[in-house]
Amino acid sequence: DIQMTQSPSTLSTSVGDRVTITCRASQSISSWLAWYQQKPGKAPKLLIYKASELESGVPSRFSGGGSGTEFTLIISSLQPDDFATYYCQQYDSYPITFGQGTRLEIK
Amino acid sequence: QVQLVESGGGVVQPGRSLRLSCAASGFIFRSYAMHWIRQAPGKGLEWVAVISDDGSTKYYGNSVKGRFTISRDNSKNTLYLQMNGLRAEDTAVYFCAKCPGWPDRFNYWGQGTLVTVSS
């Protein structure tokens, strides 16, 4: 199974900050990586797919990059609505696996 | 618009069974693979199972293999998850989700249904 490791687990941030979340795969997954945002009590929301493709309707302050085993999610200027938990997911092969999540909290 | 509505969750004793359903609408259900994903309270996301568009291919996560069975009825636009031999660690919100490809990202999710395994 492909292991996905996110860092950091928690990030204390402020509105307006530039935020970078990292996701590492235990083996190469090419660009088959997605990022999700989840708020308490809600289903995850797809933000980025194929490592860098922005899902329709997602604000352009979100961007993704990387390939192989190292990936990043960047929020260019954090907004109040962005305080949530973020997950990466690999879809290179089954079983599909997720990172453990990164929680953004208000500093 | 795409809608996925899960049902069938509840409180069940360890060792018992439960069947979850996911009613789909707003897209051609028989053309897409469907997944179950779960989330234990306060924990991260765990992929559970996938079924191909025609039901012929199924894969399972290691923690549920041999106990859970995914199925679908394309005439009813409904996805199922039969859960047998439930354990306390199966307690979670169960989401159904749609993918555009095989395998792929999850572009649509249901709201989830809570399964609690407790005596």
Task: Please sum up the structure shown.
Chain A has no helices and eleven strands. Chain A is mainly beta. In chain A, strands 2, 4, 5, 6, 9, 10 and 11 form a seven-stranded mixed β-sheet that branches.
How would you characterize the overall build of this protein?
The complex is a heterodimer of chains A (107) and B (119). Chain A has 107 residues and is mainly beta. Chain B is mainly β and 119 residues long. In chain B, strands 2, 4, 5, 6, 9, 10 and 11 form a 7-stranded mixed beta sheet that branches. Chain B has a 4-stranded antiparallel beta sheet with strand order 1-3-8-7, with no helix packed on it. The radius of gyration of chain B is 13 Å and the shape is globular. The termini of chain B are far apart. Classes of the chains: A mainly beta (107), B mainly beta (119). Chains A and B meet through strand 4, strand 5 and strand 10 of A and strand 5 of B.
List the helices and strands and how they pair.
The complex is a heterodimer of chains A (107) and B (119).
Chain A: E1 4-7, E2 10-13, E3 19-25, E4 33-38, E5 45-49, E6 53-54, E7 62-67, E8 70-75, E9 85-90, E10 97-98, E11 102-106
Parallel strand pairs in A: 2-11
Antiparallel strand pairs in A: 1-3, 3-8, 4-5, 4-9, 5-6, 7-8, 9-10, 9-11
Chain B: E1 3-7, E2 10-12, E3 18-25, E4 34-39, E5 45-51, E6 58-60, E7 68-73, E8 78-83, E9 92-98, E10 108-109, E11 113-117
Parallel strand pairs in B: 2-11
Antiparallel strand pairs in B: 1-3, 3-8, 4-5, 4-9, 5-6, 7-8, 9-10, 9-11
